[in-house]
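RECORD TYPE: inverse folding
INPUT: structure tokens
STRUCTURE:
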């Protein structure tokens, strides 16, 4: 019997997940389908209960439901630490967060071993939390730089273990970049339609830095294009999108998805 998967969010029309997952099912000849579901906040409980009753196998959860859905499923330890669920497995009613796997998978696929690296993380919102946990799990020395310093400090306090928080001003961010191996942008600066924006001055970049921008639209942000010019290794947010989806796929189906097929589909969609 066909297995049904999907993504719930509000809005949901822009989601690239349906095409990405359906391409993977097709490539592997699986009798599965992945659909987008527009679910408003006030119907979230109905949607989760209804999905379970209908025999839906798994759902991804996107903005604005990632936190609220925690109360409706049984979040695993990592999802609880991050404070957000993006994957539900209805076979167990467990909730997971695959964003951390998305970040580590992206770095691994680019040949970057995060273990023990000095990471400078820009941002302190939802995406930054996943990047922060990925860094901590890999034993990195982490510095969080956020526009609203208090928010960065709050996240640093929560993480403990010598995590520092700074602002985005040149006098602080300059020395921090000079002392970092990996720079992860988890702010929304440079995201479509504001594609000519960059979160830091490009002069501060150095060639030994790996620059990972979690933004996937545009495919190459201003930050990545400037980093390339400087000779840095760069990683696009497309990888994060693909590898978090791949981790959800593994949870639901217990097999490895064709990540190359998934990435190709997403890239094609983003170029259109
Ligand atoms: P997401 O879930 O994508 O992480 P978010 O939780 O709204 O989104 O977080 C957005 C991040 O981008 C925050 O760290 C935000 O900084 P503030 O905490 O100061 O708001 C950062 N950000 C957004 N616009 C920015 C800008 N123009 N300059 C610098 N940082 C910005």
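DESIGNED SEQUENCE:
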């Amino acid at each position: 019997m066909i297995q049904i998967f999907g993504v719930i969010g509000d809005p949901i029309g822009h989601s690239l997940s349906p095409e990405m997952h359906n391409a993977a099912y097709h490539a592997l000849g699986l009798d599965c389908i992945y659909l987008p579901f527009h679910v408003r906040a006030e119907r979230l409980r109905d949607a989760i209960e209804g999905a379970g009753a209908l025999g839906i196998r798994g759902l991804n959860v996107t903005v604005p439901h990632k936190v609220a859905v925690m109360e409706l499923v049984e979040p695993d330890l990592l999802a609880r630490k991050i404070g957000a669920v993006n994957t539900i497995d209805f076979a167990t009613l467990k909730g997971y967060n695959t964003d951390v796997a998305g970040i580590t998978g992206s770095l691994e696929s680019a040949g970057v071993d995060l273990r023990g690296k000095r990471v400078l993380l820009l941002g302190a919102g939802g995406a930054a939390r996943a990047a922060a946990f990925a860094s901590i799990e890999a034993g990195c020395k982490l510095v969080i730089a956020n526009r609203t310093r208090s928010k960065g400090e709050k996240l640093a306090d929560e993480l403990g273990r010598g995590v520092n928080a700074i602002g985005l001003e040149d006098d602080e961010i300059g020395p921090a970049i000079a002392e970092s191996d990996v720079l992860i942008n988890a702010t929304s600066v440079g995201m479509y339609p504001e594609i000519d924006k960059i979160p830091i001055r490009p002069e501060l970049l150095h060639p030994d830095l790996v620059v990972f921008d979690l933004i996937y639209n545009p495919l190459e942000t201003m930050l990545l294009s400037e980093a390339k010019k400087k000779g840095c290794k760069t990683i696009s947010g497309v990888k994060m999108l693909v590898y978090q989806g791949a981790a959800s796929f593994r949870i639901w189906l217990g097999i490895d998805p064709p990540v190359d097929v998934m990435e190709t589909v997403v890239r094609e969609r983003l170029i259109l």
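NOTES: The pocket of 2'-monophosphoadenosine-5'-diphosphate is lined by residues 123-128, 146-148, 151, 168, 186-189, 199 (CB under 6 Å).
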